[in-house]
């Protein structure tokens, strides 16, 4: 089997069915882009969890003048109540669960608020009196949050105990839903790509039925007849997979590395390194789908 002959046949087939080849490339590109996006989303969730779960704290918000919680019937937290809460945080009963804690006054709270929302127009409308005092608690094991909540939520002077992980979980759940949607769209598009590859190969085999008939008569092997058609599908899918990898790389490079990572320096974002981890799998998936689809089609429409 001569490689030059095989490549010539592949090139001839791609030229004859150019419009169909372009369709396969585009559908493969779109479907694998969705697959890659879903994979990168999951990597982002994993990276953010690993980064933030060790940093998030439990916030014990203390009663203010206008709180109506069951522990705030006497009004704002008193010095004595605040001292009892601090003593409990430093007690031997709580020590196995608490890694460290710090008190945040109203003045410190408004300072932190203005730092976090420096680009927002509402920073000048928020005053220290509107924000509560709190204790920020870092846990030895973040999964033991319920123990801290049970211990402190019933203490006088405590308005509410909040696990900041709950806020992160909402963000992660949104990303996970987006990943599932992307996978669903990718599944539909992959099915379209498989059908298009099969249609393209069937059309190519029909157009070249005379050449394949002559090759049969001169004793051409089954593999030499089928290989050019299989390679046509693989080449089309390969181009689509490379385009998908390129678009994902550009999105991460310019949108995440070039913008989001610079604006939100305290957030752990994925980088182009993750794209290079995903891209080979996209290429492999595209090649396998095209190869299998081509072989199944040839078995039905190119009897040897």
UniProtKB/TrEMBL annotation:
Mode of membrane association: Multi-pass membrane protein
KW Transmembrane helix (keyword) present: yes
Alphabetical keyword list: Cell cycle, Cell division, Cell membrane, Membrane, Transmembrane, Transmembrane helix
One Pfam family, short name: FtsX
Annotated ranges, domain FtsX extracellular: 56-161
InterPro entries in the record: ABC3_permease_C (IPR003838), FtsX (IPR004513), FtsX_actino (IPR047929), FtsX_ECD (IPR040690)
Annotated ABC3 transporter permease C-terminal domain residues: 185-303
Cell compartment(s), UniProt: Cell membrane
Transmembrane segment boundaries: 21-41, 174-207, 227-256, 276-298
UniProt-listed PANTHER family: CELL DIVISION PROTEIN FTSX
Functional note: Part of the ABC transporter FtsEX involved in cellular division.
Similarity-based family: Belongs to the ABC-4 integral membrane protein family. FtsX subfamily.
Quaternary structure note: Forms a membrane-associated complex with FtsE.
Official protein name in the record: Cell division protein FtsX
Classification of source organism: Bacteria, Bacillati, Actinomycetota, Actinomycetes, Micrococcales
